[in-house]
Amino acid sequence: MFPKTCNTLGVAQSIKLISKNVTSCLESKFLSTAASGLPSQARVIIVGAGVVANSVAYHLSENGWKDVVVLEQNKIGSGTSHFGSGTLGLFKPISHRDIIWYSIKLYQKLQDMGYEIGMKQCGSINLAQTKDRLVALRRRIAYNTPTGLNCELLSPKDIKKYHSYINVDDIVGAVYIPEDAVADPRAICDVLAQLAQKQGVKYFEDVKVEKVLTRNSRVAGIETEKGPISCEYFVNCAGMWARELGLNCDPPVRIPAYPAEHFYATTNFLNIDEDLPCVRDFDSFTYAREYHGGFMVGWFEPEANPAFQGKEVPRNWIDDLSTQWEHFDTFWKYAVKRLPILAECKEPALVNSPDNFTPDGRWVLGETPSVSNYFVACGMNGNSLQGAGGIGKAVAEWIIEGQPTQDLLPFQIQRFLDVHNSRQYLEQRIKEIVGR
User: Fold this and answer.
1) Report field, pTM of the whole predicted structure over 0.90
2) Which residues form the FAD dependent oxidoreductase central domain (predicted)?
């Protein structure tokens, strides 16, 4: 278990230090224009500068759309995009998988271009502790294999061949996915922003969008704290702030996504193989991956804590975080049971990085039914990197061509009703969505 010294204060200080280092790095890396230089108009305005927003900007610029402005209320990448697990899993329904598969190919392309983004197709091992879980995994094999995904059913003995650190005493079987991957979410977020900027996209930091302006139920522009900008298209990639911004529009735009606390821990250097497969232990709500010679271990809790309960998400969200030892103590014990080597590590670094979750656990994408040319890309459900590449491509296609090349019906924003956008409903609903 974690040492008792890993308390709430220590966690808060740790994440603030991480954020400070990220911010100073970004300030030297990006050519963000001063807020005083805001244009009076743009063809496309994107709010937020996380990995999803940067992917949308990149794909628009790749298709020749240069009159694009990205507005970030803090610094580029200063939301939760930099704090993700970096896991890229394909063992999903084909609608998800096609988006993620494109993301993997895009990230591999960036690495082949010489960018250091930590991209590795190390595969994953998906564990079953019960016969019922194994039946569920077999069913997933049945619909994934015919559509092109390589899946291998493993016995407990086979598991040890791929990952010698896994305790298989209570495991009845597993599925190995060789094409699953990991990458560095911080690096990819930054690289996409740099490439978009090189192709003419303008980024402005420290600019909060306060309201989306409409004319005849169509996007006409935005109101920022620095003044108005007219535009033809608006893309809400505001992450934890997306729902609140949606309400600041006439007519209102419903975006049912709300942040839940989300934890992971990283260990000291343990001299493990950097190509170890990721581990997903569904029955213990735990995942693990190699991370700088040690492990990153995270959890999707069956009863999560809503973040920032009863108030709006603060602009400086890191200052508002708190953690409770009792909440994650049990899950760390699960991780140690599955990977006994964790008992040998020094005090892990714990990060509480809230992320937006949706009522059905699926992304929220597309043009809103209430306001024309108002597009949404949010609700990443704990892993924004996983879908960012493919989502950016799809949203760019939506804007340029009027529709994406892939059928995205399961993710379209029209599936929700007004009741789904109630904060009270969302705070209760996401508690059970995180670990679904």
Assistant:
1) yes
2) 401-435
